[in-house]
């Protein structure tokens, strides 16, 4: 919608969140920490997404590189407002694991049926993001003092839209179906 409106994706969202200061603060912090206003080299892209779930608000900015049809997820900046972080390190770990889980689903997540049964039996034949392919993840916490929300799940929902937006920013091509491994990009 931002592109159709001829607006920057971050600015488009920020304009529509003026009446929601908590959400706007999370979005702004993510854009600032990700250096949204700093241009990227050709073949690189940035995407942003915001999600309110489990009583928390999370924004994520994903940076990718697409070269010769190969996709690399390079960096994720996440900001969470879960009210108050009793254990900031624990909250960061939860957000980071949710990001890896969500990236795995977005990039590879597919269950196939063969002869009436699920073909995948465990992680040896169901791919997930391995540490060698994991992006740099920066997690920032906003302690707003609002009612406390969850931290285990909120890192997952915004990652796929932020990733798809980053790919579009890098290539001009929209991802309309997941997993991305079934697109024209090599993951």
Write a brief caption for the model:
The chain is of the alpha+beta class and 187 residues long. The chain has helices at 9-16, 21-33, 88-108, 159-171; strands at 44-53, 56-67, 70-81, 113-114, 117-118, 136-141. The chain has 4 helices and 6 strands.
Describe it:
This is Aldehyde oxidase/xanthine dehydrogenase second molybdopterin binding domain-containing protein. It comes from SAR92 bacterium BACL26 MAG-121220-bin70. InterPro entries: AldOxase/xan_DH_MoCoBD2 (IPR046867), AldOxase/xan_DH_Mopterin-bd_sf (IPR037165), N-heterocyclic_Hydroxylase (IPR052516). One of its GO terms (molecular function) is oxidoreductase activity. The chain is α+β, with helices and mostly antiparallel strands and about 190 residues long. It has a single domain, classed as Aldehyde oxidase/xanthine dehydrogenase, molybdopterin binding domain (Aldehyde Oxidoreductase, domain 4), CATH 3.30.365. About 30% of the residues lie in helices and about 25% in strands. The chain contains 4 helices and 6 strands. A 4-stranded mixed β-sheet has the order 1-2-3-6, sandwiched between helices. Strand 2 and strand 3 form a beta hairpin. The chain is globular and about 50 Å long. The model has no long low-confidence stretch (mean pLDDT about 95).
List keywords for this structure.
Aldehyde Oxidoreductase, domain 4; two-stranded antiparallel sheet; alpha+beta; 187 residues; 4-stranded mixed sheet; 4 helices
Q: SSE layout and pairings?
A:
Blueprint: H1 9-16, H2 21-33, E1 44-53, E2 56-67, E3 70-81, H3 88-108, E4 113-114, E5 117-118, E6 136-141, H4 159-171
Parallel strand pairs: 3-6
Antiparallel strand pairs: 1-2, 2-3, 4-5
């Amino acid at each position: 919608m931002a592109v159709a409106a001829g607006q920057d994706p971050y600015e488009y969202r920020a304009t529509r969140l003026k009446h929601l200061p908590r959400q706007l603060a999370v979005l702004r912090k993510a854009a600032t920490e990700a250096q949204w206003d700093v241009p990227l080299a050709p073949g690189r892209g940035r995407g942003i997404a915001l999600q309110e779930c489990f009583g928390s608000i999370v924004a994520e900015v994903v940076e990718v590189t697409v070269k010769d049809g190969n996709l690399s997820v390079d960096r994720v900046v996440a900001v969470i407002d879960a009210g108050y972080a009793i254990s900031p390190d624990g909250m960061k770990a939860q957000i980071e694991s949710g990001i890896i889980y969500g990236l795995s689903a977005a990039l590879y997540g597919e269950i196939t049926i063969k002869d009436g049964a699920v073909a995948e039996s465990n992680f040896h034949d169901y791919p997930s993001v391995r540490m060698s392919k994991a992006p740099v993840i920066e997690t920032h916490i906003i302690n707003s003092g609002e009612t406390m929300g969850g931290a285990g799940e909120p890192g997952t929902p915004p990652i796929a839209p932020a990733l798809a937006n980053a790919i579009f920013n890098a290539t001009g091509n929209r991802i309309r179906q997941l997993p991305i491994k079934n697109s024209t990009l090599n993951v």
